Amino acid sequence: MPTTETKIWQGLKARVASLPLGLSIDWPLMPFDKPQAGGKPLPYVECRHIPNRVNRLLIGSQGPQERPGILQITLCWPASEISTGSGKTHPDVLIQQAGEIAAHFPTDLRLTFDGVTVRVERAPDVSQAYRDDAYVRVPVSVRYSVFA
Questions:
Q1: Distance of alpha carbon 104 from the chain centroid
Q2: Does the pTM exceed 0.85?
Q3: Which of 147, 137, 142 is CA-nearest to residue 45?
Q4: For a tag on the chain, would you pick the N or C end, based on fewer CB atoms within 10 A?
Q5: Pairing of strands 24-26, 44-51
Q6: Which domain holds residue 101?
Q7: CB atoms within 10 A of CB 18
Q8: Where are the alpha helices (DSSP H) in the chain?
Protein backbone atom coordinates (compact mmCIF):
# COMPACT_ATOMS: atom_id res chain seq x y z
CA MET A 1 0.00 0.00 0.00
CA PRO A 2 1.43 3.42 -0.95
CA THR A 3 2.50 5.72 1.89
CA THR A 4 1.08 9.20 2.35
CA GLU A 5 4.33 10.64 0.98
CA THR A 6 4.01 8.51 -2.17
CA LYS A 7 0.40 9.60 -2.65
CA ILE A 8 1.38 13.27 -2.32
CA TRP A 9 4.16 12.87 -4.89
CA GLN A 10 1.92 10.97 -7.32
CA GLY A 11 -0.72 13.71 -7.17
CA LEU A 12 1.87 16.41 -7.85
CA LYS A 13 3.65 14.39 -10.53
CA ALA A 14 0.45 13.77 -12.51
CA ARG A 15 -0.19 17.52 -12.68
CA VAL A 16 3.37 18.30 -13.78
CA ALA A 17 3.11 15.61 -16.47
CA SER A 18 0.07 17.43 -17.88
CA LEU A 19 1.90 20.75 -18.42
CA PRO A 20 0.83 22.11 -21.82
CA LEU A 21 4.30 23.32 -22.89
CA GLY A 22 5.35 20.10 -24.60
CA LEU A 23 8.82 20.16 -23.02
CA SER A 24 10.83 17.22 -21.68
CA ILE A 25 10.71 16.85 -17.89
CA ASP A 26 13.70 16.12 -15.69
CA TRP A 27 12.16 14.14 -12.80
CA PRO A 28 13.89 13.71 -9.43
CA LEU A 29 16.19 10.69 -9.18
CA MET A 30 15.41 9.57 -12.74
CA PRO A 31 17.98 9.33 -15.54
CA PHE A 32 17.69 12.34 -17.84
CA ASP A 33 19.50 13.33 -20.99
CA LYS A 34 19.06 16.99 -21.78
CA PRO A 35 17.12 17.23 -25.05
CA GLN A 36 18.92 18.20 -28.24
CA ALA A 37 18.09 18.62 -31.90
CA GLY A 38 20.85 18.70 -34.48
CA GLY A 39 23.47 19.03 -31.74
CA LYS A 40 21.78 22.12 -30.27
CA PRO A 41 20.29 22.06 -26.77
CA LEU A 42 16.53 22.39 -26.40
CA PRO A 43 14.47 23.84 -23.54
CA TYR A 44 13.22 21.51 -20.82
CA VAL A 45 11.58 21.60 -17.39
CA GLU A 46 13.27 20.48 -14.19
CA CYS A 47 10.93 19.20 -11.45
CA ARG A 48 11.93 18.95 -7.79
CA HIS A 49 9.78 18.11 -4.77
CA ILE A 50 10.68 19.73 -1.45
CA PRO A 51 8.52 18.43 1.42
CA ASN A 52 8.61 20.55 4.54
CA ARG A 53 8.30 19.71 8.23
CA VAL A 54 5.12 17.85 9.21
CA ASN A 55 2.96 19.70 11.74
CA ARG A 56 0.91 17.82 14.31
CA LEU A 57 -2.35 19.72 14.78
CA LEU A 58 -4.42 17.39 16.96
CA ILE A 59 -3.74 15.63 20.23
CA GLY A 60 -4.73 12.19 18.98
CA SER A 61 -1.83 10.22 17.56
CA GLN A 62 -3.96 8.89 14.69
CA GLY A 63 -5.29 12.33 13.65
CA PRO A 64 -4.39 13.94 10.35
CA GLN A 65 -1.25 16.04 10.25
CA GLU A 66 -0.40 19.03 8.09
CA ARG A 67 2.19 18.20 5.43
CA PRO A 68 3.32 21.36 3.62
CA GLY A 69 5.84 21.53 0.83
CA ILE A 70 7.06 23.16 -2.34
CA LEU A 71 6.96 21.79 -5.84
CA GLN A 72 9.83 23.52 -7.66
CA ILE A 73 9.40 23.58 -11.44
CA THR A 74 12.24 25.28 -13.27
CA LEU A 75 12.07 26.29 -16.92
CA CYS A 76 15.54 25.67 -18.40
CA TRP A 77 16.26 27.46 -21.68
CA PRO A 78 19.54 27.20 -23.62
CA ALA A 79 21.46 30.42 -22.98
CA SER A 80 22.81 30.33 -26.54
CA GLU A 81 19.25 30.69 -27.84
CA ILE A 82 18.38 33.87 -25.94
CA SER A 83 18.84 37.30 -27.45
CA THR A 84 16.95 40.50 -28.08
CA GLY A 85 17.92 40.24 -31.75
CA SER A 86 16.02 38.45 -34.50
CA GLY A 87 16.22 34.68 -34.90
CA LYS A 88 16.61 34.01 -31.18
CA THR A 89 14.23 33.69 -28.24
CA HIS A 90 13.47 36.99 -26.55
CA PRO A 91 13.89 36.93 -22.73
CA ASP A 92 10.22 37.90 -22.31
CA VAL A 93 9.25 34.53 -23.78
CA LEU A 94 10.79 32.80 -20.77
CA ILE A 95 8.73 34.86 -18.33
CA GLN A 96 5.62 34.13 -20.40
CA GLN A 97 6.28 30.38 -20.35
CA ALA A 98 7.09 30.42 -16.62
CA GLY A 99 3.79 32.24 -16.12
CA GLU A 100 2.04 29.46 -18.04
CA ILE A 101 3.61 26.91 -15.70
CA ALA A 102 2.35 28.95 -12.72
CA ALA A 103 -1.14 29.22 -14.25
CA HIS A 104 -1.27 25.41 -14.44
CA PHE A 105 -1.26 25.40 -10.60
CA PRO A 106 -3.98 27.91 -9.61
CA THR A 107 -4.77 28.79 -6.01
CA ASP A 108 -6.84 26.10 -4.28
CA LEU A 109 -6.25 23.52 -7.03
CA ARG A 110 -6.84 20.10 -5.50
CA LEU A 111 -4.84 17.11 -6.71
CA THR A 112 -6.04 13.78 -5.37
CA PHE A 113 -4.26 10.46 -5.57
CA ASP A 114 -5.51 7.34 -3.78
CA GLY A 115 -7.54 9.27 -1.22
CA VAL A 116 -4.93 11.93 -0.36
CA THR A 117 -5.60 15.48 -1.58
CA VAL A 118 -2.87 18.04 -2.19
CA ARG A 119 -4.09 21.66 -2.18
CA VAL A 120 -2.20 24.50 -3.83
CA GLU A 121 -2.08 27.17 -1.11
CA ARG A 122 -1.59 30.31 -3.21
CA ALA A 123 -0.53 31.54 -6.62
CA PRO A 124 2.91 30.12 -7.48
CA ASP A 125 5.99 32.34 -7.21
CA VAL A 126 7.78 33.02 -10.50
CA SER A 127 11.36 33.95 -9.61
CA GLN A 128 13.87 36.08 -11.43
CA ALA A 129 15.66 34.28 -14.24
CA TYR A 130 19.28 33.37 -13.63
CA ARG A 131 21.99 31.89 -15.80
CA ASP A 132 24.26 28.94 -15.17
CA ASP A 133 26.91 27.77 -17.64
CA ALA A 134 24.59 26.63 -20.40
CA TYR A 135 21.00 27.52 -19.46
CA VAL A 136 18.89 30.41 -18.32
CA ARG A 137 16.61 29.13 -15.57
CA VAL A 138 13.31 30.51 -14.31
CA PRO A 139 12.12 28.79 -11.10
CA VAL A 140 8.41 28.50 -10.36
CA SER A 141 7.59 27.56 -6.75
CA VAL A 142 4.24 25.92 -6.06
CA ARG A 143 3.42 25.90 -2.35
CA TYR A 144 1.04 23.19 -1.23
CA SER A 145 -0.41 21.62 1.88
CA VAL A 146 -1.92 18.26 2.70
CA PHE A 147 -3.89 17.14 5.75
CA ALA A 148 -3.39 13.40 6.07
A1: 10
A2: yes
A3: 137
A4: N
A5: parallel
A6: 4-146
A7: 8
A8: 4-17, 91-103
